[in-house]
Amino acid sequence: MPGERILVLGGTAEARALAAALAARGFAVVSSLAGVTSRPLLPEGEVRTGGFGGAEGLARYVREEGVALVCDATHPFAAKISRNAAEGARLAGVPCLRLERPAWTPQPDDQWTEVADLAAAADVIAPGARVFLTTGRKGLDPFRARRDITVVARVIERPEPPPPPSWTVIAARPPFTAESERALLLSERIDVVVTKNAGGRREKLDAAAALGIPVVMVRRPLKPPAPVAASAEEMVALADAAL
Ligand code: NAP
Prior knowledge:
Elements: E1 5-9, H1 13-24, E2 28-33, E3 46-49, H2 54-64, E4 67-72, H3 79-92, E5 96-99, E6 112-115, H4 118-124, E7 130-134, H5 141-144, E8 150-155, E9 168-171, H6 178-187, E10 192-196, H7 203-211, E11 215-218, E12 228-229, H8 232-242
Parallel strand pairs: 1-2, 1-4, 2-3, 4-5, 5-12, 6-11, 7-8, 7-10, 8-9, 10-11
Bound molecules: NADP nicotinamide-adenine-dinucleotide phosphate (NAP).
NADP nicotinamide-adenine-dinucleotide phosphate (NAP) binds next to strand 2, helix 2 and helix 3.
């Protein structure tokens, strides 16, 4: 019912779109950010920042703030907060729904090697390769020990601890165009792209496919079972039905 309070667990473009869509439907939305980026893009409406203190802390917040529904719109690779969301909502006795952008699936020209995690991705890179790493600031560690490869890492914020001095670090925030992705792969003479299966825009994948460059694709972690919407509009419909 409009007016009810909905907690949107965010940190993604989808969560920002969802906060706007739920507010437009008349719900009282509070968006939650982990507080891990220094200049986050903020959703419209009320925002809280920082961890809850596990599932119990999230349940306490839900009860104290009169939250009627939890919408987990976190990144597909943010597995811990999704577990906490499901468990915290269960403890507090409110429903938990998930907004999840569909995973990428291989297209005819894609040359993917799918791996289970970042450590496996670091293991499959051939010695001497020039690697374009787009696994995020926190997804760099398994590659630091590979002193036999050349790394070009693209991150939104500078990684801590700093990467090895031999790495090229490009700080940039998406979206990127197909032309700029192609130009970067060519100018850096990239042999292989490493990425997590985040889903969403495919420019870097399309540029790699067009240039015949293989991709090491890290599969998504498992998330707990929940009703899943693929778009903000679908999620508003699920929220309407749940409240
Ligand atoms: P994570 O490993 O699943 O969660 C680690 C801890 O961070 C959680 O236990 C929770 O702390 C806190 N947390 C995470 N998301 C939160 C949120 N939206 N609001 C309040 N607390 C939150 O998460 P992560 O992979 O580090 O991602 C952190 C944030 O960045 C998420 O909001 C996610 O949507 C966003 N993000 C992640 C990625 C990625 O590749 N992982 C990419 C883009 C954006 P407590 O246990 O103390 O509550």
